[in-house]
Amino acid sequence: MKFSEAVTYWYSNNKRNLPWRKTQNPYYIWLSEIILQQTQVKQGLPYYEAFVSNYPTVFHLANAKESEVLKLWQGLGYYSRARNLHASAKYIANKLEGEFPKSYKELLQLKGVGDYTASAIASICFNEPTAVVDGNVYRVLSRYYGIETPINSSKGTKEFKELAQMLIDKNNPSEYNQAIMEFGAMQCKPQNPFCDRCPLNDSCIAFNKNRINELPVKIKSAKAKKKHFNFLVFISKDEKTILQKREGKGIWQNLYQFPLIETEKNMDAKSLKKELVTHSLLKETTFELSLYNEEPIVHKLSHQHLHTKFWIINIEKPLYDGVPTAELSNYPVPILIENFIESFNFD
């Protein structure tokens, strides 16, 4: 039995029962693929169900406010995915009159859609024989064929794509692409794969040469930068606080946060008070400053680690333009802020 047949046969007997596998509607497949980028199925499934429930068609998603989309996305991270999702929904609804792109090349025109996502939608929905290459596929092919080319190099990207395209079942690309991804996720796992009961173990180079833990090869990324975030949580006598919308192209774009002081080193109360003396809200009023968390909360992002402190500032005067603390849950915020809001007693 050749490679593609063995993987597809395995899939027919072992695939998980997932909602996006019960449809070929490109809108639902697109939703699932964007949500599952950088996200495991168990985490992404409730988000998929929430999006389908709130936005059953691309028109519903296109007509939503960006803040509503970001709020529903809250906790998934990599928020550019949500912004691109919303922008592409508007493009499909308004420019394409709701007609979803039907080919790999056309799908690449959507914001946030690259080679993998375009290949997945084109094959699953329109049976176009274009191979998917995601982390699962890299792992399966690297181990089975004993390929040592780094998967995160330009050479590796080209080599694995060409191999995947050569292996795809051109008569049934939809089933095969889903099969090899599922095989990598459930059978040829990153850690402790089920090699003893793998249908490919007799011809798998990594298994037969005892190199399972060495493949795939990946070039080590640069060390994450360390940053110090100091969030100022104002609480006024009229039970309001301050939220600010993050602008620009940095992390958490268009999400809300408490006023932030970013420093190169850990900040103590004495240093912070010097900073606060000139703050417009604290002029001609008394305030109490306290630190919510003695140990910084380390929030790890892909390229930076945020060592975070939340400083509580109780002020005597009212915040006429502030946000009522009872309404904080209505705003889309980073998971770091959400966790604080849930744990802090604003009553």
UniProtKB/TrEMBL annotation:
Catalytic activity: Hydrolyzes free adenine bases from 7,8-dihydro-8-oxoguanine:adenine mismatched double-stranded DNA, leaving an apurinic site
Protein task: Adenine glycosylase active on G-A mispairs. MutY also corrects error-prone DNA synthesis past GO lesions which are due to the oxidatively damaged form of guanine: 7,8-dihydro-8-oxoguanine (8-oxo-dGTP).
Gene3D superfamilies: Helix-hairpin-Helix base-excision DNA repair enzymes (C-terminal) (1.10.1670.10), Hypothetical protein, domain 2 (1.10.340.30), Nucleoside Triphosphate Pyrophosphohydrolase (3.90.79.10)
Name of protein: Adenine DNA glycosylase
EC number: 3.2.2.31
Domain HhH-GPD: start-end pairs: 35-186
Top-level class of the enzyme under EC nomenclature: hydrolase
Cofactor: [4Fe-4S] cluster
NCBIfam families with a match to the protein in the record: mutY
Cofactor binding notes: Binds 1 [4Fe-4S] cluster.
Family: Belongs to the Nth/MutY family.
Keyword DNA damage (UniProt): yes
Superkingdom: Bacteria
Keywords (A to Z) from UniProt: 4Fe-4S, DNA damage, DNA repair, Glycosidase, Hydrolase, Iron, Iron-sulfur, Metal-binding
